[in-house]
Write a structure and sequence with these properties.
By secondary structure, the chain is α/β, with parallel strands linked by helices. It has helices spanning 6-48, 54-57, 123-133, 164-177, 192-203, 219-229, 236-248, 257-260, 283-294, 312-315, 317-332, and strands at residues 81-86, 93-99, 109-113, 138-142, 185-190, 210-213, 269-274, 302-304. The termini are far apart. 45% of the residues are buried.
């Protein structure tokens, strides 16, 4: 009988060690994957949440509102109408306030879109509406889905990639229900509302003009910055994108403001941002302006010196009003 050699007897032991190593690596891989998925879910849940609280606790109306210590007496709009209409997404109702100008539907009108966790009652939105209205421009202030008094779908926001259909529903209402000419209706937005207004303008070629105050530009870049600002590793964004698709059906990278400006085809755009914005970097304004110019458009961004996020209207109200009125008068038709 042959006596087993040392080499022959060692082979089963090596196979056992390899199997154990493989099992250990698989266990580690599973644990790491589970940890990544769990962390991605926690981050998505925290950073995507929004609130409709503004619609319940804020008592501002077009007829009576305050903001940032500014004398709003010149900007009050007592003759406003509360309206509701369907979003372009089925099953979602949008709450809004409409204030006609003295020229009615023969003149220009603007849909105003608020930011994250705000609503149509937010003081800065009402101030901007009042600035437009006192210069003869009709205004429609809307509550985005999951905000204010509009339908709460899932309590989350999608960076404008879903909400743009709410802004366009406002545009539809002015054109179809109130008889405004499409080339006399523009969009205005602040923060999330600015991103939403830009995406909406890109998706609807009949929107005549858009004013954006403090938008992000590229979605992936902005999400990385938001993760870092909140102390999370930026690599979690990949899991966050998957969680958004699974939990809410939202493709956060499907549309973005910087992609939208490529579709403007020369339509007027105004870009403004605060130089001291710690929420969304003022470099986004430069990125958007560069994209506008790269696609044949013209734009001269106004970077408000020392202004924090959407604060330009508070710090320089007279200049804000002058620029706002001049932009929409020239792009939507002279009042």
């Amino acid at each position: 009988m042959d006596t087993p050699t040392t080499e022959t007897s060692a082979r089963p032991k090596r196979r056992i060690r390899r199997r154990r190593t493989g099992v250990a690596l698989l266990v580690v891989l599973v644990l790491v994957t589970l940890a990544y998925v769990g962390a991605s879910l926690v981050v998505y849940d925290k950073l995507s949440l929004t609130s409709a609280e503004c619609g319940r606790t804020n008592q501002n109306t077009p007829a009576s509102f305050t903001t940032a210590g500014i004398d709003t007496g010149l900007y009050l709009m007592p003759a406003y109408e509360a309206v509701t209409f369907a979003s372009r997404d089925p099953g979602i109702d949008i709450s809004a306030w409409y204030v006609a100008s003295d020229r009615g539907p023969t003149g220009p009108a603007v849909v105003l879109v608020h930011g994250h966790d705000a609503c149509k009652r937010e003081g800065r939105m009402l101030l901007a509406a009042g600035m437009l209205h006192r210069h003869g421009i009709g205004v429609l202030l809307i509550d985005l889905r999951n905000h204010g008094n509009s339908t709460v779908v899932n309590g989350r926001f999608a960076g404008g990639t879903r909400e743009y259909n709410d802004a366009l529903a406002g545009w539809d209402w002015l054109v179809d229900d109130r008889g405004y000419a499409p080339d006399h209706v523009g969009l205005f937005g602040m923060s999330l509302g600015a991103a939403t207004a830009l995406i909406a303008t890109g998706e609807e070629p009949r929107v005549a003009a858009v004013w954006e105050d403090s938008s992000y530009a590229d979605a992936d870049v902005a999400i990385q910055a938001e993760l870092a600002r909140n102390g999370y590793p930026t690599f979690l964004r990949y899991g966050g994108y998957v969680m958004a698709l699974i939990r809410s059906g939202d493709d956060l990278l499907s549309l973005s403001p910087i992609g939208a400006v490529a579709k403007l085809d020369g339509r007027p755009i105004f870009i403004t941002h605060g130089s001291a914005d710690s929420r969304l970097s003022p470099t986004y304004a430069a990125d958007l302006a560069a994209a506008v110019r790269a696609h044949g458009g013209t734009v001269d961004p106004w970077i408000a010196d020392g202004a924090e996020h959407t604060e330009a209207i508070d710090l320089q109200p007279a200049e804000y009003e002058r620029r706002l009125d001049a932009f929409f008068e020239s792009s939507l038709g002279e009042p």
